[in-house]
Structure formats: C-alpha cells, structure tokens
Amino acid sequence: MKLLRAQSAAWPVLLAILLSTPAPAAKPATAAEAIDAMLAKAIPADGPGAAVIAVKDGKTVFRKAYGMANLELGVPLAPDSVFRLGSITKQFTATAVLILREEGKLSLSDPITKFLPDYPTHGHVITVEHLLNHTSGIRSYTGIPGYMATRVQADLTPAQLIDAFKSEPMDFAPGEHLEYNNSGYVLLGAVIEKASGKTYADFVVDRIFKPLGMKATAYGAEGPILPKRAAGYTRDGEMVLNARYLSMSQPYSAGALVSTIDDLALWDASLYTEKLLKRSSFERAWTPAITRDGKPTHYGYGWAISTLRGARALEHGGGIFGFSTYGIRLPDEKVYVAVLANCDRPKADPGMLGKRIAALLIGKPFPEQVPVAVAPEVLARWTGVYRFDPQTTRTVTVEGDKLSSQRSGGARVELKPTSETEFFFEGSLARLKFVAGSDGKATEVLFYPEGADEPEHGVREGDDPAAPAGEMPAKRRK
Prior knowledge:
Layout: H1 2-20, H2 31-42, E1 50-56, E2 59-66, E3 68-70, E4 75-76, E5 83-84, H3 89-102, H4 128-132, H5 147-150, H6 158-163, H7 182-196, H8 200-212, E6 218-219, E7 233-236, E8 239-242, H9 252-255, E9 257-259, H10 261-270, H11 279-285, E10 304-308, E11 311-320, E12 323-330, E13 335-341, H12 350-361, H13 376-379, E14 384-389, E15 392-399, E16 402-407, E17 412-417, E18 422-424, E19 431-436, E20 442-448, E21 456-462
Antiparallel strand pairs: 1-2, 1-13, 3-4, 5-9, 6-9, 7-8, 10-11, 11-12, 12-13, 14-15, 14-21, 15-16, 16-17, 17-18, 18-19, 19-20, 20-21
Helix pairs in contact: 3-7, 3-8
C-alpha cells in the first residue's frame, strides 16, 4: 500500500515534467508532407501565391495552391487557377516548329528570309534553328533601352512587333554564341503563321492543346474571359502592388500563353509519347546547341538543358508582368515539377522551389544552408574582381564581417558563409566557392548557379574597384 501511495503521489510530478518537456519535432512522413511543409513556410498565405504540382512515374504525388488569386476580392488561389506562363511558352512554340518540320513545311536550315523576305539580315544567313536555340545574334527587343518602360503597352500585330526591332544592329554573327533572345521566338511565331496558314494562337490550340486535352491553356489575350484566371502582382519591398499593364500582343509566341499546373502535367506526360512528334524530334530539341567554335551551350529548342543532383534536367522559367513560373522535368527519373506564381517578384523564387521539390523526389534533397561565423581577415582574402567571360565579371567586397558579390549589371548581394571558402545567397540555391593559391590568396571563384552541379569559373584579375552605383538587380542570376 505504501508503494502504491508513493507511486500515486509521484504521478502529478511526472505528468508536470512530461507536459513541460518539448516534444521532438515530427519529421514529415511522406514526400508530399515534406513538400507541403516547405511551401507553407515559403509562400505567405495572405499575399500573392503559387500553384504547385509534382509528378513521379506518371502519378501526381503533390498538387496544391497557396496564397491569394485576387487580393482585392479575397479569392484564394486554387490548384486549377490560370496563370500567365511567360517564357515557358517557348516550349510550345518550338514544338509547333518541329511539327511543321515533320510535315515538310519547313526545314531548320531554312533561312528566315524564306518566310520573311523583307527581314534585314545585315548580310548574314539567319536560319530557323538559330532562332530556336538563341544563337541568331538578333537584338532582343526586350533589351532595347526604354522598350519595357512604355512601348510594351501598345497593341501590335506580329508584323508591327517585328518592325519594332528588325532595324536594330546585330549583336553578333549567327552561331557565334548563345544569348537569350525574345525577338527570335517572336520571329518563330511569324514563321509558324507563314508555313501553316494559321495564326500562331490557332495553330498551337489545334495541333497541341486540343489533342492533349489541355482545356485551360490558351493565348492569353486581355479581352476574353478566362475562367479562374489569377490576378498578377508585383512587390516593392514589402508592399504588394497590381502588376503593370502589358499588351499580350507583345510577348506573342515568346511568352503570351496561359495555363494551369494540371495542363502542364498533361503536357509533360505527352513528352514520353509520340502523340505530337517523333521521339527523334524531341531528342533533337533536348540536345544543347553547338556554337561555331565547337563549344556546347546549355539550350536546345525551347528547353534549357542541365543536371540536377546528377540527374539530366530539362527546364525553363518564365517572368512576365505579374507572374513568375518554372517547370522542370527529369526524364530518366520520370519526375516533373511545375510552380506557377502570380507575382513577378515573389518572396520565394519558383525555380528554387521547383528544384528543391524535384531533388527531394529523386531522394537527393538539397541540404539546408546554415551560416557560420568567419573572421573579417579571412573574408578579406576573397575580395577582388573575377572574370567569367569577356562580358561577365563578379566583384566581391567586404564590409566589416559581411562579404558581398556583385555580378556585372546586377545588384550587390550579401554572401552567407557555410565555411571559410564556401558561401550561399539567402533564399537561393546559388553558391560560391573560392579557390586559394599557395599564398592563401584567392585565384578563382567557382559559381554554382541555382543548384547547378557544374560550376562557372571566374579567374581573379585584380582588386575590387569602387562599387558601381544605381544598378538594377538581375532577377535570376545572383
């Protein structure tokens, strides 16, 4: 009896101890739970948000939306909300060109003057393939000074849009190197119209969207009512604003389509079949272009080609007024992830989120980056100017106990150390690793852009000059 009473008297004390001791954090039991936990933390529930889908082995393992579709009306996003795709459009434009090629209506080696006889080529031969893989050397109209400030608001026909850039000087000779180019994909839309006898919008609907059952995918003109279309937003610091107006005649075949995550999953599934094209045509689209000096690029036709955690990856992002998008497929692992956000400056980058999800699905998740303290005298060893190519440098500076990096044409961004030599950009998968010579001073820096497996090499060429002022941040290149 005494023992029983002693035990009974102890229970309240034991219970109090148990209640006051924090329970260990429960780990997500499934991939879906892990994805949900990551996205719920990254995307604010009361602001612009995103719809996300993840597919593995033909089965949807995750499908959910976060945040608001319309802040003024208090309407939340849903998984079937409709978003502007931006440059993910280029995959469909490239596929349309390859459909016409298989039908014998054009050849990739055709000069563009076969379809656009009045286009000034400045003495060069510019082919359809040059347009597809961004090696044409034509000036991208979105890079013409002042164009994006006001001229993008005008409603233009495809011919008028081409007139806006066709007299610009060439940036380089066709095939010389790769430079991402929206003008090239606008010209491809005009080529599609000339070769098919249909408008670009009608061709992609009739030959791609309808056969695949992509009922919510369309040319994103402003006038027609599109059920479940999400409103687009931008950010100025912490302030959310309605996105600037953009005439959707301007992005045209380079970026004017709208879609849903469900339709994009249908699109990805079709790429394992020959519903639209022969396997050989798609494999050609997924082969990196080679420049005239024999160097491989990272782009095929409408897809960027890379690796993710050792897996072959085919990817593309999109940025357009009010929206930021990303899709990645790992064909050998049969993984597809799409992240569609209704903000052009989202708090969490869709590309970063998409890559994290894809890596998780193949069992190779990105490690969490945890900053460590590094002495200022160690940080000072890494300062200087590093050259990556004739056009690109990265300037590394130190102020107190903080190291910063500034890519040419970009903003200065703080680097967070994970060791004395390795650093990352907060909210990004991009990272830097410094290499020292025998004297302990930096000789080069290795830049891994957005989770890439292979680095870009920057050779140190001198001390850091006075930091340039007034430069705008580069959106995707840290």
